[in-house]
Every structure is written in C-alpha cells, then in structure tokens.
C-alpha cells in the first residue's frame, strides 16, 4: 500500500486474538475466522464442492474468511489440538500461517464450553492430565545430564506426546530453589513445577496468554507469579532465580533477539540456565519457528558465555549453563 506521494504505508495490524471472547450462540467469530462446533451425534453437513473435509474438520473459504466446523469432543480439548490442526489442515497446505493457526485454535477451545473460562479450564485440565498419562506409560526422560542422551525423537515437537518428555527432562535439570520460565506460552510446565512445590515465575510477551494463565491457575489450585515481558528484557534484578528455563523458545526468535534472551537469562540466573530447542532440518512455520538450531549452535553459545556448560540430545537439543 502507498500514499498519494508514492511512499509506502504500513498495513494496519490485525485485531488481536482475545482468549476471553464470548461465543455467539456457540459460534466463535473474528475478522478472519468463524468456528462452529458440531456435536458428535449430529449428522455431518452435506459436503459442498469447495469444502475441505478431514476426520475432525470441515473448512470453507468465504472470501477473506475461513469457516471451520469441528468435531472435537470435550475430552479432546487439549493442546493436541495443535497436532490435529497441523496434521489435517496446515501440513497438507489447506491453510497456512501461525496467525490463522492461532485464531482457529482459539475458536475451537472457546466453542467447547458454556463460557470462556470454563472452556480454557477444560483445556488446561485435559492437557495436564494428558501429560501425566504420557509420562506414566513410559514417556519419561531416561538418561542423565551428561552428553549424548539417546532415545529422543530429535526435531519432534508440538504434541503432548512430544513435549511431555521435554518437560520431564527439564524438571530433572532444576537446581534447588526458585524457577523462572521465560517464554512460558500457556504455562503448562510452570504449572507443573508450581504444583510440585517450586516457587515459580512464568513470563511471556503475550499479554493475553499471561492473563489466561492468571485466570486458570487458581481454578487448578496452583499458585505462581506471572510477568508480561520480552524475554530479552525482564523487569527483575540480577540473579533473581535459581534456575532460568528457556524451553523451546529460541527457535521462535531471530539470531540477535535470541542472543539478547540468552544474555538476559544468564543475568537472571543465580545458579543455572536450561535451554531446550527442537532439532529440525527446516524451520516449521506452523509452530512459528523462524530458524533451525543444532547441537553445534548450542555448544557455540555455551562456549561464548565462558560458563561451565554441557550440550546433549534428548527429544531435541539441550544446553545447560552453570555458574
């Protein structure tokens, strides 16, 4: 877009996603998507020529908007919605982009219950229960803190089966004392740590996600502190947490921003910094990844800090920095 003088004008920012939007008679609408829930006993709508139908979704493009009908039962409202959307709609190329992904994800959750808070509480309870189930059936950590831990899936990420072992391994790496998680997203790991008795601060740049965590945590019986902040500039004094966690965050940041975040984590850590990243051949835009990272990258970071460090592989790559 340009002005009459030929100078470019920045396109307007799309409306932010509001996790607490009330549905209109069970339908979620925003400027880009419309999401309907179709209860399991209800018959499927007749398939139109322009409809994409998958096991869980019907999708139709209505001009600039995407109309989605989902058949996800209440017990399926958990973070594996990410995997369903990726596998059935985004990986095949029917839909693209993290913005569309997040809007549809939000719409599916909000159409699952009578009001936004009930819907998100269902989502959190189901997810945390599913993490426990995965770990109980043997999706745990194995191995130790030393180098070269095997048995992982390398670059897998996104679904509960993939990240439950990552959470369990991160929990093994904690130093005694307080924990600060930077880029906590929904805060599942922070909730697990707080429920286990750790003094936890969960931080994320997304104000809406932090508000969601603040609202749901008391309903889950969990107490933790939250902060809205860029992970590269956190309003906290030096060495204010015993362990600082960067769990699947740095792949979402460009090189300069990632370096600032790692420097900030070192500033904030009293004893240890734990970094985890997926090991991918290509950055997966569905999950909002902007770059790939390798074990060599992690080792180079560790060497540049001048701190004692270890690098190893377990369901992705890990860098542990110790003062």
Automatic annotation (TrEMBL):
CDD domains per the record? Answer: AdoMet_MTases
The family database entries (InterPro entries) matched by this protein are listed as: Methyltransf_25, SAM-dependent_MTases_sf
Which positions fall inside the Methyltransferase domain? 179-270
Any one GO BP annotation for this protein: methylation
Picking any one GO molecular function of the record gives: methyltransferase activity
Q: Which UniProt keywords apply?
A: Methyltransferase, Transferase
Question: Which residues constitute the signal peptide according to the record?
Answer: none
Q: Which Pfam families match?
A: Methyltransf_25
Membrane-spanning residues: none
Q: Supply the name of the protein.
A: Methyltransferase domain-containing protein
